[in-house]
From TrEMBL:
Keyword Cell membrane: yes
Lineage, highest ranks first: Bacteria, Pseudomonadati, Planctomycetota, Planctomycetia, Planctomycetales
Keyword terms of this UniProt record: Cell membrane, Membrane, Transmembrane, Transmembrane helix, Transport
Signal peptide: none
Transmembrane residue ranges: 257-279, 300-323, 343-365
Name of the molecule in the record: FtsX-like permease family protein
Key word Iron-sulfur present: no
Membrane topology: Multi-pass membrane protein
GO CC entries: plasma membrane
PANTHER family given in the database record: ABC TRANSPORTER, MEMBRANE PROTEIN (PTHR43738), HEMIN TRANSPORT SYSTEM PERMEASE PROTEIN HRTB-RELATED (PTHR43738:SF1)
Subcellular location: Cell membrane
Pfam families attached to this UniProt entry: FtsX
Domain of life assignment: Bacteria
Organism: Rubinisphaera italica
Length: 380
C-alpha cells in the first residue's frame, strides 16, 4: 500500500511539485523571518554576549536596557566591592561617540571603556594587534566590520589616527565582535581613556561588572547588592533576557516579523492545503476502487497520512535548506545588515511544528472526503 500511495502522489508531477512548493515556501518564510527576528534580538544584547567574565551586571536602578544608561559615580564601584560574596568588581563605560577622520569624514561609533588594570570586557578575538596594545597612549581597538565601514575598500592598516571628541585616537588593533543592533563600529579603549572620549558629564561609569566568590549563591548576591547599594544587580543570563524583553515590549519589531511569519504560514497552508485537497478529489475513484476491493478506512487513512508526511518532509527540507543557504550566501558576501545571523535549531523545531500543522490541516480536509466515500462511485 505504501508503494501505491507513492505512485498516486507522484502520478501527476505538476500537482505533486505544487504541494511540495507550497510547503517549502511556507517553511522558507517562517524559518527566514524567524531567524532574522532572533538575530536582531541577539544584536540588542551584543555586549552581554561578548563580555563573559562577570556573573552579575550592576546598573542604575531605573535602567531598562543595556543602551539606556544612567551614569553612576565611582563611589558606587566601591560600594559594590564592599558587599560580602563579591570576588571582584570592575567598572565599564558604554556610550556613543563620533569618530572624525583626518579628511573630515565622521562616523558614529559605540565606545566601550574597559578596566585599565584587568582589561575585563576586552574583545575575545583579535585579528591584528593585541589587547596589551591598549596600554599605549591614545590607543583604541576597532572591530573588523567597523573598520571596513570607516575605511571602505582600503586595506587594514594599524596606526591610523582620528579624533574622538577632539581627542587623538590611534588604531592599534582590529578585533571581531558580535554585530551590534545599530551596525555602528565598535571601539574599545581603557576606561581612563574612554572618560576623555566620552561627552562631558559629572558621572561616567555605565556598569559595574561583578564576579561572585566560589560557592556563593548568585541570586542572593544580586539581592544583597541591591539592598546595600540601591542599584540594580542582574545575573548575566537574566540581563540578556531583561534587555530583549525591553525591545519586545517597546518596539514594533515583534509585530512586524510576527505578521510576516503568520503570512508565511497562511500562504503555505493555503497552497499546500488546496493542492492536496484537489489531489484527493481527483483520486476519489482510485480510493473508491480500493474500498470496493475491501481496503478499510484505516488503511486509506494511513495512505493519505503517508502522502502528507512525504510532501511535508520534502517541502520542509527544501525550505530549511533555502533559508540556511540564504544566510550562508549573505554572510559570505560580507553583507553587514545580516552579519552573524543564522537559522537556530529552535527555529528549525518551530518551523517543523508549523509545517506539521500545515500538512495535518491539508490531510484532514482530504480524509473526510475519503471516509464518507461510497465504493459505488467507481461505477458512475
Amino acid at each position: 500500500m505504501r508503494w501505491l500511495a507513492w505512485r498516486m502522489l507522484t502520478g501527476d508531477r505538476t500537482k505533486y511539485l505544487g504541494i511540495v512548493f507550497g510547503v517549502a515556501f511556507g517553511s522558507l518564510l517562517i524559518a527566514q523571518q524567524s531567524s532574522i527576528f532572533v538575530g536582531l534580538m541577539r544584536r540588542t544584547s551584543h555586549i552581554i554576549l561578548d563580555v563573559t567574565e562577570p556573573d552579575i551586571w550592576v546598573l542604575d536602578k531605573y535602567g531598562q536596557n543595556v543602551d539606556e544608561i544612567q551614569p553612576m559615580s565611582l563611589n558606587r564601584l566601591y560600594q559594590v566591592r564592599g558587599v560580602a560574596g563579591v570576588d571582584w568588581a570592575v567598572k565599564m563605560y558604554k556610550g556613543l561617540v563620533r569618530m572624525k577622520q583626518n579628511d573630515g569624514d565622521f562616523r558614529q561609533a559605540i565606545l566601550i571603556g574597559i578596566d585599565d588594570s584587568t582589561m575585563i570586557g576586552a574583545p575575545k578575538e583579535m585579528i591584528q594587534g593585541s589587547i596589551a596594545d591598549l596600554s599605549r597612549p591614545d590607543a583604541i581597538i576597532i572591530d573588523e566590520a567597523g573598520y571596513s565601514l570607516t575605511y571602505p575598500n582600503e586595506p587594514v592598516e594599524l596606526g591610523r589616527t582620528m579624533e574622538i571628541n577632539d581627542h587623538r585616537a590611534v588604531i592599534v588593533g582590529i578585533c571581531k565582535v558580535s554585530a551590534p543592533f545599530q551596525t555602528f563600529p565598535v571601539i574599545f579603549s581603557r576606561y581612563s581613556q574612554a572618560t576623555q572620549y566620552a561627552p562631558r558629564e559629572r558621572n561616567i561609569m555605565s556598569f559595574v561588572l561583578v564576579k561572585a566568590e566560589p560557592d556563593v549563591n548568585k541570586k542572593k548576591l544580586c539581592q544583597a547588592i541591591t539592598d546595600q547599594t540601591g542599584l540594580q544587580a542582574i545575573q548575566s543570563d537574566d540581563f540578556f533576557w531583561f534587555n530583549i524583553s525591553y525591545y519586545i515590549k517597546n518596539t514594533g519589531i515583534p509585530i512586524n516579523f510576527g505578521i510576516t511569519v503568520m503570512l508565511g504560514f497562511i500562504v503555505g497552508a493555503a497552497i499546500a492545503g488546496q493542492t492536496f485537497y484537489l489531489f484527493t478529489i481527483e483520486n476519489l475513484k482510485q480510493f473508491g476502487t480500493l474500498k470496493a476491493m475491501g481496503v478499510t478506512n484505516i488503511r486509506l487513512l494511513r495512505m493519505i497520512l503517508l502522502q502528507a508526511l512525504i510532501v511535508g518532509t520534502i517541502g520542509y527540507s527544501i525550505g530549511i535548506a533555502m533559508a540556511c543557504a540564504f544566510f550562508e550566501i549573505t554572510g559570505a558576501s560580507g553583507q553587514a545588515d545580516l552579519r552573524g545571523m543564522y537559522v537556530p535549531w529552535q527555529v528549525m523545531l518551530i518551523t517543523a511544528g508549523a509545517v506539521s500543522l500545515i500538512v495535518l490541516v491539508a490531510s484532514l480536509l482530504s480524509i473526510h472526503k475519503v471516509l464518507v466515500l461510497e465504493p459505488a462511485v467507481v461505477f458512475k
